[in-house]
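Many introductory courses stop at the sequence. We go one step further.
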Amino acid sequence: MAQVHPIPTLPAVHAQALGLLSDPSTSIPQLGQVVETDPALTVSVLRAANSAASAPVTAIGTPAEAIVRIGLNTTRKIITAAVVSESFNRLDYAGIDSSELWRHLFTTALVADASAWGAEQRSTAFTAGLLHLIGRMAMAQSDPQRYTQVAAIARTGHPILDAEANVFGYDSQSWGVEVARAWDVPDEIVEAIGGFSDGSLGPLAWVAWNGRRIAAALGIGDGVQSAEQMDVHGELSEEDEQLLSGLGGSEALLEQAEWMLGSVTTAKAA
């Protein structure tokens, strides 16, 4: 294997937050105490709680109050996104359209969540969808100059995993597994990260792949390739339409993704 870059490290508070998010017994006070020690996490949950989508009557001023308003499940999603966003904040320098990437990640995650079964499995599926490109983000963050070469090759229609292997000597799917393991991500999510390209490594890998496919069918690229260039593009099936209907329709899905993107953008600007 060619030169392998260091795995990005998490600040202690972010590692603590991810640990709490992986524990289904975590309480609102526990999570609130961790969130309030980090400005970016605080801004994210306050932004979500005080947004028009949350129908606020009075402004929320503390993380604990914000978590109560938007709910623990939504808070888990927002905090996971904020942690990842803070860790990979230089992607635009690597030839990646970070806004489009985040639309892709949130849409994929929301569809994965809706495709799964059971409350706990659904929350895990959302995280798998959100983190499935963590290897790409780590490669782009650590070596933006070389990843710009990858992006240029991929935009000609060349398979992106092959382009990464040509430039780096390894691809982002395998590297994502290493990053996720170093971050103590649960094994089933690591498995999904390692199998998102074809969905063959188990149920979570399949829902991540399915989320990518539907995101592409809705015209959302992945920040490097357009929806038409991605290897999962295609027409929406009747089953897809039924799934989208359960989410309020494609417009409602995209609005939810934009709402989450707004929380991430605000956190990055804090």
